[in-house]
Design goal:
Elements lengths: L6 H13 L4 E5 L1 H11 L8 H9 L19 E5 L17 E6 L1 H9 L5 H11 L4 E5 L6 H12 L3 E2 L13 H16 L22
Parallel strand pairs: 1-2, 3-4, 4-5
Helix pairs in contact: 1-7, 4-6
Protein name: Aromatic acid decarboxylase
Pfam families: Flavoprotein
Keywords: Flavoprotein, FMN, Prenyltransferase, Transferase
């Protein structure tokens, strides 16, 4: 998780991964802590990360607390501080399926595209690319300048999936959480993680107007 606006996207991705039975190595950049505090009022603390994560994951995209249930103890999540460059995921020999950067700031996009490895998030992304593992970068910024577009092309050419946080409306969204879940569903699709977060297109017009299943 980098410092771009869009903490509901990150929370929904984590819930989706855990619901699918995946274990998660979580990296929260320093900038993203400020965004999380600004958007939710939650201070993410290294010494109390499980408590803070549980509070955050229970919150809906509209800011309402206790909207979602959270797996007790979060046993399937392992947290790594962003400054820990000796963390497990910093090595290619650490067994992982891939990496999702959600949301991805333009600074994170630039750092990964240039191979800077200035913090653990960038380092893990670099390792993911060199090991030819799936890397999904959910860019959350608008408008995009030419330099960022060039960095996005570089990531695409390196094998990453560049996935702008751009919600669609054909799925029949009626709530802000629906728009968040559409983007998150596309992220999980790109990572090959099963979910039922949004109504898929089935080739029939008017699907958004029909009652949900």
């Amino acid at each position: 998780m980098s410092g771009a606006s869009g903490t509901p996207y990150a929370a929904a991705v984590l819930r989706g991964l855990l619901a699918a039975g995946e274990s998660v190595d979580l990296v929260v950049s320093r900038a993203s802590r400020l965004t999380l505090l600004d958007e939710t009022g939650i201070a993410f603390r290294d010494a109390h990360w499980r408590e803070d994560l549980a509070t955050w994951l229970a919150r809906g995209a509209d800011g309402k607390p206790d909207t979602f249930g959270v797996p007790e103890g979060l046993e399937d999540v392992r947290y790594w501080p962003a400054g820990d460059l000796a963390a497990g995921p910093s090595s290619g020999s650490y067994a992982v399926k891939g990496m999702l950067i959600v949301p991805a700031s333009t600074a994170a996009v630039a750092g990964v595209a240039l191979g800077l490895s200035k913090d653990l998030l960038q380092r893990v992304a670099s390792v993911t690319l060199k090991e030819r593992r799936p890397l999904v970068v959910a860019v959350r910024e608008t408008p995009l300048n030419g330099q960022t577009l060039k960095h996005m092309v570089t990531l695409d050419e390196a094998g990453a999936v560049v996935l702008p946080a751009s919600p669609a409306f054909y799925a029949g969204a009626t709530h802000i959480q629906d728009l968040v879940d559409f983007v998150v569903g596309r992220v999980l699709d790109a990572a090959g993680v099963p979910h039922a977060l949004y109504r898929r297109w089935e080739g029939e017009l008017g699907g958004a107007l029909r009652p949900g299943d």
